[in-house]
Amino acid sequence: MKTKYLLTIVTLLTAVLLSVAAPVAAGEEMSVSLNQAEGPTDAGEMEVFMDEMFTRHMEEYHIAGAAVAVVKDGQLFFAKGYGYADVENNIPVDAATTIFRTGSVGKVLTWTAVMQLVEQGKLDLDADINTYLDFQIPDTYPQPIMLRHLMTHTSGIEDRWLNSVVTDSSELVSEREWLVDNFPGRVRPPGEAAGYSNYNAMLGGYIVARVSGEPYEEYVQKHIFDPLGMTHSTVQPQMPAELLPFVSKSYTFVDGAFQPFPDYLVQPAGLPSGFHLTSVTDMARFMIARLEGGFYGDASSEIRILEEDTARQMLTTLYTPDPRLRGTAYGLFDFSDNGQWVVGHEGYAPVMESELMLLPDEHLGVYVVYNSLEAKDGGLATKHMGFQREFFDHYYPAPVVETLQPPADFAERAERYVGFYRSANNHATTPEKVVGLLGGFALEVTAPGDGTLLVPMEGLLLRFVEVEPLYFRQVDGSFSLVFREDDAGNITHLFTNIQSENDFVKMDWYETSAFNMVALQICLLLLLSMLPVGLIRAFRNRAASRPTRVADSILFGISLLNALFLVGIAIWFRPMRPSELHGISLTVEIVMGLGVLSALLTPAALVYTVLVWKNKYWGVAYRVYYTLVTVAAVGFVWFLQYWNWLGWRY
User: Fold this and answer.
1) pLDDT bracket for residue 229 (50, 70, 90)
2) What is the DSSP secondary structure assignment for residue 200, as one 8-state letter?
3) Dihedral of the alpha carbons of 518, 522, 528, 534, in degrees to the nearest 10
4) Rounded Cα distance, 492 and 649, in Å
5) In 3D, which of 57, 83, 156 has the Cα closest to residue 426?
6) Which of 312, 343, 482, 624 is the 20 to 30 Å CA partner of 372?
7) What is the tens place of the pLDDT at every residue in 370-383?
């Protein structure tokens, strides 16, 4: 350790002396930068940089433990653990032995397994996946789903979170049973747009098992982990006993203290989507193999997990909505940053976050993982933010970019692009769609009037100018937008290299969160007002005619059922993130039934609304009020239906 710091000091002094010796023009500021756009060159310098960054991030975002590994030119360049794998027992994170969940970064292992079988001629990326399955994907659209669609998330199969994890091993079911019973649905033709979906990788892993004749977890262990010497890695529904002591706990930060996240088990079908476990130095071995043409070698062994041509192919673009965007490689997305070509993947699982980045031209790979859910939205493992932002700004400073000027006449065309766009991976057929009501899966494109478009994305507010019809570039950066229009010239899609795993679909006015929230609040205000009004009227009008009492009772019952439904859902729906929706309990199913019962009573309220006006049951004021509450009840039924909360749609 002392030697590393001595090297760092010598490097600093050398840089200062060189800068002093160099001529400096009058009035020019003199600056020292250790890594002038050349990437990391000194492991000692990197340790100083990483120590400072992790110390700051972990304190600011309340992270219990983390680890990072960097590989370069076929070798482990740097690896270190920070904080604690077990806070309660003061067990520190060790880069070589501490095992973390990978989150969705594990999908990269699944697609590597797929390509191993493609090499052997056992799989064809252009074959209908039904060829390899022992159940049939519904023929919702005439076009078949191919393996390439799964790998690029362009299958048109929506995402699936519910029921993928359990708390008791008795709830585990076979891969086939889970995949069939939990098929999310096909929501667009394959190849039309990218919509990130865990189910794609689940199918990919199941196909690996079917074709290889080995369970997925055994295949990955035998053909990736074991050959690469990844001794602290596994993918199992239940952790092998010999590795259990090395597994990092997961934490949330609540009331000023770290709280362990409850243990859970993953349905076997869900393993390929990102429930692998590994240490960062084990992941370093995998990164080296992916960067060095499928080859890994050290002092004790040499191994190849992919043929060189296949490994190179997997870093090239497999899907792009437009040739001006890099799009998606073979299971890796465009993470390019500060002028460097980067492919990568983010990972999340309850509760951890990770990010993998490969720079093929630099033969450099980086993997970082955190064992805690951030106490605030900081995007530590989000591309272009947090860790990635600081790493690239330090080692690959952004090149000077000529500021683009907008066309003089763009303001006249700006409105056709303005509006809300939802992510193509939104849950169209399950209750998880409600995340969109809370603002998730959507972005708003605005035109500030200066000839540009403003787009908030990945925590950034970016400004774009039109370069060609339907093609926009960032004013002062390298990001791009591409719009798609229909035959009538209406904008239908937005594509971007900021988020290549998800394309965006322009929303109609009734789909927007703003409209739905306003409509919901008005409906609830009217429905809830009926509760005290109905009670008062029932007490005061006990001698009223039977038809009027029935009319009041029906609308009061609808309002009460809807109120109980909302309270029940609010108690259940308290996830830190949507993927904490592990399953549907009997209590929730009963609560869902309240919404169904309310919907069944609503037509009766419509009938009585007609009768109260026809027979003039009450004064005009109360008839108007009764009608408004009935309209609210109808609106609430529409709301539940639209957001997939009417009935048991899971």
Assistant:
1) very high
2) H
3) -170
4) 28
5) 156
6) 343
7) 999 865 565 899 99
Rounded to a whole number of angstroms, the distance between the first and last alpha carbons of the chain is 55
Q: Is the pLDDT of residue 1 over 80?
A: no
Residue 519, both tokens:
């409509």
Topology of the domain covering 410-507: Lipocalin (2.40.128)
CA 551 to chain centre: 47
**What residues contact residue 206 under an 8 Å CB cut-off, 6+ apart?**
133, 175, 176, 179, 216, 269, 272
Question: Could you tell me which CATH number the domain at 48-395 has?
Answer: 3.40.710.10
Cβ-contact 609, 627 below 8 angstroms: yes
Name every residue whose Cβ is closer than 8 Å to that of residue 514 and which is 6 or more positions away in sequence: none
Residue in the block written with tokens 């100083």: 48
User: Closest Cα to residue 108, out of 301, 295, 330, 285?
Assistant: 330
- Backbone φ and ψ for 359, nearest 5 degrees, come out as -110, 90
Residue 454 phi/psi, 5° resolution? -105, 130
Composition of the chain by helix, strand, coil, percent to 5: 40, 20, 40
Sheet holding 277-278, edge to edge: 100-101, 277-278, 233-234
Report CA 336 to chain centroid distance, whole Å. Answer: 18
pLDDT recorded at residue 2: 37
Q: With beta carbons less than 8 A apart as the criterion, state whether 202 and 303 touch.
A: no
- Nearest one of 105, 151, 193 to 428, comparing CA atoms: 193
Token pair in block for residue 55: 């110390």
> Of 507, 559, 509, whose CA–CA distance to 534 is shortest?
559
State the residue for tokens 């997925």: 216
Burial degree of 404 (CB within 10 A; 0-12, 13-18, 19+): middle
β-partners of residue 334 are: 343
Please state whether the predicted TM-score (pTM) of the whole model is above 0.85. yes
> Which long-range contacts link 310-319 to residues 24+ away (Cβ below 8 Å)?
310/115, 310/118, 310/119, 314/111, 314/112, 314/115, 314/290, 315/290, 315/343, 315/358, 315/360, 318/148, 318/151, 318/152, 319/148, 319/152, 319/154, 319/191, 319/194
Residue 243 in contact with residue 234, Cβ under 8 Å? yes
My answer on whether omega of the bond before 351 falls inside 30° of 0, hence cis, is: yes
Longest CA–CA span in the chain (Å) reads: 102
User: Rounded distance, CA 69 to CA 281, Å?
Assistant: 6
3-state secondary structure of 495: strand
Kindly tell me if the per-residue pLDDT of 56 is higher than 70.
Answer: yes
Kindly write down the DSSP assignment for every residue of 535-552, as one continuous string: HHHHHHTTTS-HHHHHHH
- Coil, helix or strand at residue 282: helix
Helices then strands, each counted (H, E), the chain: 14, 24
Of 531, 548, 398, nearest in space to 474 by CA: 398
Residues 67 and 102: their CA atoms lie apart, in Å, by: 12
CB count within 10 Å of CB 513 equals: 18
pLDDT digits (tens, 9 = 90+) for 557-612: 999 999 999 998 887 765 444 444 456 677 888 989 999 999 999 999 999 999 99
Q: Is 120 exposed, middle or buried (0-12, 13-18, 19+ CB in 10 A)?
A: exposed
Residues pairing with 349 in the sheet:
352
Measure the CA angle with vertex 173, ends 170 and 174; round to 5°. 145
The CA-based angle 20-25-29, given to 5 degrees, is 70
Please state, rounded to an integer, the average pLDDT across all residues of the chain.
89
